[in-house]
Amino acid sequence: MAESILEVQGLRKRFGALTVTDDVSFAVAPGGIHAVIGPNGAGKTTLIHQLSGTLRPDAGSIRFAGQEVTGMGLARRARLGLARSFQITCVLPGFSVLENAALAVQARSGSSFRFLRAAADERALNEEAMAALDAVGLGARAAALAGALSHGEKRQLELAIALAMQPRLLLLDEPLAGAGPEETERLIGILRGLKRSYTILLVEHDMQAVFALAHRISVLVYGKVIATDTPDAIRADPAVRAAYLGEDEVA
Ligand SMILES: Nc1ncnc2c1ncn2[C@@H]1O[C@H](COP(=O)(O)OP(=O)(O)OP(=O)(O)O)[C@@H](O)[C@H]1O
Asked: What ipTM, to 2 d.p.?
């Protein structure tokens, strides 16, 4: 088996008396989509916050690409390639779609463009930004104002901004939330395309999407991982069905 890109060991987070992630351990192998599912309040978002570095765990360790990152902040983790897609908040509505993506490329690359001539500099930034937009099917909307995008298109732009970080592992927290049926179909198609080139850790409520996309699934219930396995094994696992999945839900 390929060496894990992410290894989570004994991760614990308490809010007062509530233990929100309780001795969480799992590993993510490179390539494809590893999903984390669980009922409301299971601790999925709290787990993503701990993985991305916005929340410090009380105990446990996170190793990313063979390196201990538990004590690192968000920016350092992102520079190592552990990137999270943020919702709407990081999209600048008054800037074009291309400018938003180019700003993300520039934020990642920092000073590496400084030594190029201004025109070449801008061309290189724009080319990389366009590649990210094309990867999420938003190339044709490059000139549009980000504020004029539909809900689904904004989700695509957030994905492009995350791709501009050149992630080795992309953390996605409910990328389909709030999307209508058509947008959901489109976003699933985009994620299907992305999983060929990226490793993705996906938290998502849409079970149809999860079972269509993921090659591995971890199930979180009351802060504990009760199973990590293939979709077929998860679907058949009596403990999973009892704890979370309705009998019909994944039939
Ligand atoms: N900052 C906080 N302070 C106190 N309690 C919190 C905090 N953040 C989350 N919680 C609680 O921790 C529990 C887990 O929340 P979390 O958002 O991680 O779950 P989730 O699995 O993502 O839920 P959902 O599927 O509804 O998004 C909930 O009971 C929530 O109220």
From this structure: 0.95
Q: Is the CB of 15 under 6 A from ligand 1?
A: yes
CATH numeric code, 1-81+167-251:
3.40.50.300
Element (H, E) at 110: none
CA-closest residue to ligand 1 atom 9: 46
Q: Is 195 in the pocket of ligand 1 (CB under 6 A)?
A: no
Q: In what order do the strands lie in the sheet with 216-221?
A: 82-84, 169-173, 199-203, 32-37, 216-221, 224-229
Spans of all domains in the chain? 1-81+167-251, 87-166
CA of 125 to the centre of ligand 1 (A): 38
- Which pLDDT tens digit goes with each residue over 126-178? 999 999 999 999 999 999 999 999 988 999 999 999 998 899 999 999 999 88
What predicted TM-score, i.e. pTM, was given to this entire model? 0.91
